[in-house]
Design a protein that fits this description.
mainly alpha, single chain
Length: 85
Amino acid sequence: MRIIGVLGLVIPLAGCAIAEKVVARHDYQRAADDYKQCTTANPTAPQQCEEKRLAMEAAERKQNSISTDIDWKPTTPPPDYASAR
């Protein structure tokens, strides 16, 4: 019963991380499109697009920082005190 209870709590939380990752990916894509449009409009003055480049990099860092992995590692078995060494 405990396992079912734990899974009942873990699965919705993992779903929240996935939704957050999707939003972050969308934000990054929008920032990348804005930066690309700026560089296309200003090919001889890339310094005008510096703010958009910084926003794109910040969105990329946010996207990469969100983990959707469930990091579960089984523990090592307890020592066998009954065995002779």
